[in-house]
Design goal:
Blueprint (H helix, E strand, L loop, with lengths): L3 H5 L6 E2 L5 H11 L3 E6 L2 E7 H9 L10 H4 L6 E3 L4 H11 L3 E5 L5 E6 H11 L1 H16 L2 E5 L2 E5 L6
Parallel strand pairs: 1-2, 4-5
Antiparallel strand pairs: 2-3, 5-6, 7-8
């Protein structure tokens, strides 16, 4: 069982305030190459602002990102998961609640990080790396193996040539 604390160790969390403009929040997303940021007032989390919020609540409604405040378009009441929970629980919570980000909290409810669907996918791919390599090896072993057949009084050997 792999705990979130092992997976999130050493990761930085990014945040904005509710009074930031959407443009400022997008600058934070782009600068840090993340898909969502925590929205907080002092030490209290009041929401999450994500690329989906931007698309559905700003761009789609033709609002001006330089004028709209994060508090007007953020996702409120983010779903939380505990830092000691298994990553599979986090995956199930995302699926059941149809969300792409979970707020990770610690023992005293303190914010430990933001887990994204991409994080979960990267974990699953890393865990499946050996299987993927084995499948690729079996596929290419069959695809590139020399094939032979008998034709009248001779044996014909066909080999794979990538240039042909």
């Amino acid at each position: 069982m792999e705990r979130l604390k092992d997976f999130l160790e050493g990761r930085e969390m990014f945040w904005v305030t509710p009074k930031n403009t959407v443009r400022e929040a997008v600058d934070c997303l782009c600068k840090n190459r993340v898909g969502a940021v925590v929205v907080k007032v002092e030490d209290e989390v009041v929401g999450v602002f994500s690329e989906r919020d931007l698309m559905h609540r700003v761009i789609h409604k033709r609002l001006n990102p330089d004028e709209v405040l994060v508090e007007d378009v953020m996702s409120r009441n983010p779903i939380t998961v505990h830092i000691n929970d298994d990553i599979n629980l986090a995956k199930a919570l995302m699926h059941m609640n149809k969300v792409r980000h979970l707020l990770v909290v610690g023992k005293e409810g303190e914010i430990m990080g933001l887990l994204s669907m991409r994080d979960v996918m990267e974990h699953d791919l890393a865990a499946s790396a050996d299987l993927i390599h084995q499948l690729n090896d079996k596929y290419y072993e069959r695809s590139y193996a020399a094939k032979w057949r008998v034709s009248s009084n001779r044996v014909i050997v066909e080999t794979y040539h990538p240039d042909s």
